[in-house]
Amino acid sequence: MTEANQSIKTTPLHALHVELGARMVPFAGYDMPVQYPLGILKEHQHTREKAGLFDVSHMGQVRLTGEDPAAALETLVPGDIKGLARGRMRYTLFLNEQGGILDDLMVTNAGDHLFLVVNAACKEQDVAHLREKLAGKAEVELLDDLALLALQGPMAAAVMARFVPEAATMKFMSYLPATFNGVPVVLTRSGYTGEDGYEISCANADAEAIARALLAESEVEAIGLGARDSLRLEAGLCLYGHDIDTTTTPVEAALEWTLPKRRRAEGGFPGHEIIAKQLAEGTTRRRVGIQPDGRQPAREHTDIVDADGAKIGEITSGGFGPTAGAPVAMGYVDSAHAALDTPVSLLVRGKPLPARVAATPFVAQRYYRG
Amino acid sequence: MTVKYTKDHEWVRVEGDVGTVGVSDFAQHQLGDVVFVELPDVGRTLEKGKEAAVVESVKAASDVFSPVSGEVIEVNHDLENEPARVNTGAQTEGWFFKLRLSNPSELDGLMDEAAYKAFVEESN
């Protein structure tokens, strides 16, 4: 064992993953299942056709309390948090003074507090950032005693209704404290696959029983991080540290939809001046979907070149989309090449692979709108 | 007919001076679902231990090295449309290419079936 292995963390479902025959890999400091015996391709397809259960307990769950935690959080993110109705959630971004993205997160108005879900690799720094910037304005608690599961797919709602009947009518991006087989859980109708589904926050001690109960349903299979990545890529969703990071702004990342009118006008978040200028004048590069011709995937860090062979960008996520039945990718290109259907070439092992700029998602999202 | 294996989990089946090359069943299992295979051009001269092909799973791309030196005389075009053949028949219908051996003595340095089996068990 290396030192790194000795310090690696585990989730409350670790023993279950091993029992299910998962191949475990280090991810964001945790020993996580990349795939189960079913394999990434079938796990991906199963989630699109039925329902998949994911362990996402490595992610950070954070509680923000105080006199006005929404006003406090708005000083760090460009989203409309004050306008978030009780029981509703939205996607937003922690920004730095240059408008670069420190992390992406989900924020829920849980009534007496804000409930945040942040990336595993960023959670320590996010909590430190919140504590430093919101000192005196909000209390920040990293909820290490909680696990997080995700149940995703077109049959997720039918499965969840057997345990939590009121879950069936939850709207996409809403929140509901509930009871699951007698134990308290917090459900959100959200996810990272492009499918309908839920995330289930529960006590660490209850996580295994809840996972086993869901896996006992005939529609549900355990799904690893490998399929989680191919599912989110087909759904056109960004992966922090790859498609977005501190060097990309929300405008460059084509995430203008996270910048509501009031916040654009009022500002009051880090990097507002830079972002306002970019919104008015455009940016030199832009995140786009990339559809390679043929079957050959183009991976992260593949150079994107124009017809003359000049570099115009780079792939940030790329692989094979099992539902798309074709390779899919996203990346940044010079804005002159960002229009839909612009032909580009991808330098894969030195050879130009023809591709074009494509709309995302590659597979239609199927969220529950009620 | 001889089948020999490399430590990188390629196999070569030799009939006369022609070797048929693929990846082992252990390798396909480790790779997971194969979605694309890049094959060498017919006529290309391959060197033992050097890159010969690329196999891509959903997750990642992996190099396939030639177990022996020689000239490529045929490739398995079926893999272009059905790369999953590498998973279903790694050591049969999932072969990658055939080459004419330029130095058959290189085979002596490779593992036979029993030695390879022991090698896999040990590395597991």
UniProtKB/TrEMBL annotation, chain A:
Residues 285-363 form the Aminomethyltransferase C-terminal domain. It is an enzyme of class 2 (transferase). One of its GO terms (molecular function) is methyltransferase activity. GO terms for cellular component: glycine cleavage complex. Keywords: Aminotransferase, Methyltransferase, Transferase, Transit peptide. Residues 13-259 form the GCVT N-terminal domain. The keyword Transferase applies. Gene3D superfamilies: Aminomethyltransferase beta-barrel domains, Aminomethyltransferase fragment, Probable tRNA modification gtpase trme, domain 1. Its EC number is 2.1.2.10. It comes from the Bacteria. Substrate binds at residue 199. It catalyses: N(6)-[(R)-S(8)-aminomethyldihydrolipoyl]-L-lysyl-[protein] + (6S)-5,6,7,8-tetrahydrofolate = N(6)-[(R)-dihydrolipoyl]-L-lysyl-[protein] + (6R)-5,10-methylene-5,6,7,8-tetrahydrofolate + NH4(+). GO terms for biological process: glycine catabolic process; methylation. Belongs to the GcvT family. This is aminomethyltransferase. It comes from Azospirillum doebereinerae.
UniProtKB/TrEMBL annotation, chain B:
One of its GO terms (biological process) is glycine decarboxylation via glycine cleavage system. PROSITE patterns: BIOTINYL_LIPOYL, LIPOYL, PUA. It holds the Pfam family GCV_H. Its cofactor is (R)-lipoate. The modification N6-lipoyllysine is found at residue 59. Binds 1 lipoyl cofactor covalently. InterPro entries: 2-oxoA_DH_lipoyl-BS, Biotin_lipoyl, GCV_H, GCV_H/Fam206, GCV_H_sub, Single_hybrid_motif. GO terms for cellular component: cytosol; glycine cleavage complex. Keywords: Lipoyl. Residues 18-100 form the Lipoyl-binding domain. The glycine cleavage system is composed of four proteins: P, T, L and H. The glycine cleavage system catalyzes the degradation of glycine. The H protein shuttles the methylamine group of glycine from the P protein to the T protein. Belongs to the GcvH family. This is Glycine cleavage system H protein. It comes from Azospirillum doebereinerae. The gene is gcvH.
